[in-house]
Each structure stands twice: as structure tokens, then as C-alpha cells.
Design brief:
The structure is a single chain. The chain has 358 residues and is an alpha/beta fold. The chain is 40% helix and 18% strand. The mean pLDDT is 97.
């Protein structure tokens, strides 16, 4: 029985992506690797049709958090200050990263699941000079899709640049790189793009990176070094070659299927089916559809049911769901729409939910 991952990454792989992992052994200093890396960087910019003269895709070996950390430590000048908008685990993680490196921050928090406090963000930007605002696009803690247009308008009004955690949205949700004041967007291969864990990346505005003034806080996560080396057809450190192969295959499948808009439509259709089935069974979603990402939705556990019970019953039928985090762990479960999931797989999931919860 095929196991379907409904957690927010890693995802269930297609046969083509899995086969790509068996590509030939390759040294990262050889011309063949350079061609692979150059091609990946071009394809990543093509996801949102970004011009290479203004933007660079920087490939890293690591998780999505590595990309977020690289973005924060490389884009904020020595005397800069970041306003961090928090309404979940991953906004809080950006604060932890900034504190670890001694980056000056201001925090504006909202309860998990709530929308961002735009008035408080506006007041913070008005009262203290900031160079950047850092925000999570899709906060998978609850499935909330944060309002980038509203946050971007605040940034433009106060003359600050946006540092975007797009780890769980890049490739499926709309990101208006052309109109938002985005300095950089951190993302990963193993979520909406359907690659495998091990490759992450930052899509960085070249002028914004140059404006950081040559700040160096990290050896391994220095985006300036990576961008210069990768623009020069090299890499500063050994990369995860096999996961590069997998991302290359995943991106080919992504574009063949219609690209970002089609990927978002696919996820929305899947989540609508799951959501309708759970509503039919009396299971309440955490958020309204218009507040939620197409990638993942959170749901309240039914009365008298534990997460462990639901998880284990679904796992026995070939499906892996995800628990809530922190204080939500006792009352919430999450379901993601990412990965190689067929119509038959989706129908089988709905049957399993009815068997368990009906």
C-alpha cells in the first residue's frame, strides 16, 4: 500500500523525482554540476517570471530554516533593525535567529491563528527606524496565509524592505515580486515544488543585497558569497548533488503541469475535497477558507478523539497527517495538499476519514 504524506513537507514523491535521485555521481567542481546548478537557478526565477538582472536564486544545501537564516543574516546591515511580525511558530523562529546573531529587532505578536496586527506594525514602524520587516507568508502552525499586500503597503509607506519566509508558499501561492518591496524570499525544494529535503534557496533582490553593505555574520550562510560564486558558475561549498537532480526533475514536472497558478489550483481543489469531507463528519476547520493557504488547513480534533488515535488509524490506512504545535497539540491536526497525490488517493483518504470518524 502506497503511503501518502499529508504533513507540510517532505512530500510524497513522483516516480520521476524519485528516479532522479539515482543520477550519476558528480563532483561539484565539474562542468556538469555547473550546468545543473545554472539550470536550477534559471528555473527557480522562472517560477515567478523574475528577471535575472534584478534577482538571483541562491541555492543552499539545508532545510527551509537554513534559507530563512541566510536571508536574515545576509540582508540586514550592521546598524539595521528588523520588525518581525509573528502569529505562529515560524515568525517566532525568525526572532530566535535574529537574537542569536545579535540583530536588532522589534517584535509585534498576534495569537496563533489570528491575523497579523497591522495597526501595531504600522505604529512600530512609525515610532522606530527600521530597515526591514520580516514576515511569514504561509504560517503552517495554523494554515493562515498572511496578508502580504497589506504588509507590503506598510513597508512602502515607511520605506522598509520585506524579508519573506516563503518556505511553505513558494510555487503555489501568488507572490507579487514586481509590486511588493521584497528584498528576499526564502524557500525550499521539498514543499510546493515537490522536490526532496536537502536543497533550499533564497530568491534575492540584487540591489537589496548590495545595500546590506557587505555585512558578514556567517561563513556557511553568507548569501553574498553564494551569489557571487554561483553567478561565476561555481559554489563556495559542497552541494547536495542528488537533491539537485531531484529538484531539477520536480521543476520540469512543475512547469509541464502549468506552473505556479496551476499548482495553486490543484492544491485548492484537493483541500476543498478534504475540507468538505471533514465538515460532513462534523470536524471544524480552524480558519475560514479565505484566511487559509491552499497548501495546508488546520482542523479541530473531534470531541473525545486524540491526535494519536486519529494519526495511527490513518497511518494504518496509508496516510500521514500532522499534529498541532505547542498549545495546539492537544486539540488540532493538520492536513496538507502537497505531493504526488492522485484522484484515487484522495478518494481513498476520504473513505478512510469516514471509516474512522463517521
Amino acid at each position: 500500500m502506497k503511503t501518502i504524506l499529508l504533513n507540510p513537507g517532505p512530500v510524497t514523491l513522483s516516480a520521476g523525482v524519485r528516479a532522479a535521485l539515482t543520477g550519476p555521481d558528480l563532483c561539484h567542481r565539474e562542468a556538469e554540476f555547473v550546468a545543473l546548478q545554472d539550470n536550477l537557478r534559471r528555473k527557480l526565477l522562472a517560477v515567478y517570471d523574475l528577471p535575472a538582472a534584478e534577482w538571483g536564486a541562491v541555492l543552499l544545501t539545508g532545510s527551509g530554516t537554513a534559507a530563512v537564516e541566510a536571508m536574515l543574516v545576509s540582508l540586514v546591515p550592521r546598524e539595521g533593525r528588523v520588525l518581525i511580525a509573528e502569529n505562529g511558530v515560524y515568525g517566532e523562529r525568525m526572532q530566535r535567529i535574529a537574537e542569536t546573531y545579535g540583530i536588532a529587532t522589534t517584535r509585534v505578536t498576534a495569537p496563533w491563528g489570528a491575523s497579523l496586527d497591522l495597526a501595531a506594525l504600522d505604529a512600530a514602524l512609525a515610532s522606530t527606524p527600521h530597515t526591514h520587516l520580516a514576515v511569514v507568508h504561509h504560517e503552517t502552525t495554523t494554515g493562515r496565509l498572511n496578508a502580504l499586500a497589506a504588509v507590503g503597503a506598510l513597508c512602502a509607506r515607511h520605506g522598509v524592505r520585506m524579508l519573506l519566509d516563503g518556505v511553505s508558499s513558494f510555487g503555489a501561492e501568488d507572490i507579487a515580486f514586481g509590486t511588493l518591496p521584497i528584498a528576499a524570499c526564502a524557500a525550499t525544494a521539498n514543499k510546493c515544488l515537490h522536490g526532496v529535503p536537502g536543497t533550499a534557496f533564497v530568491v534575492v533582490n540584487r540591489a537589496a543585497l548590495a545595500a546590506a553593505g557587505g555585512v558578514t555574520r556567517s561563513v556557511y550562510l553568507d548569501l553574498k558569497d553564494y551569489l557571487a560564486r554561483q553567478d561565476g558558475h561555481g559554489t563556495p561549498f559542497t552541494q547536495s548533488v542528488q537533491t539537485f537532480y531531484a529538484l531539477d526533475a520536480a521543476l520540469d514536472e512543475f512547469f509541464a503541469a502549468g506552473g505556479q497558478a496551476a499548482r495553486g489550483d490543484l492544491f485548492r481543489a484537493r483541500m476543498a475535497t478534504v475540507r468538505a469531507t471533514l465538515l460532513e463528519l462534523g470536524v471544524r476547520p480552524l480558519l475560514a477558507p479565505e484566511e487559509t493557504s491552499c497548501v495546508l488547513h488546520g482542523f479541530e480534533l473531534p470531541e473525545g478523539r486524540s491526535y494519536a488515535e486519529l494519526h495511527d488509524a490513518l497511518k494504518a490506512r496509508g496516510f500521514i497527517i500532522y499534529a498541532g504545535q505547542g498549545a495546539l497539540s492537544e486539540r488540532v491536526f493538520r492536513v496538507s495538499a502537497m505531493g504526488d497525490i492522485s484522484a484515487d488517493d484522495l478518494a481513498r483518504l476520504c473513505r478512510a476519514l469516514r471509516e474512522i470518524l463517521g
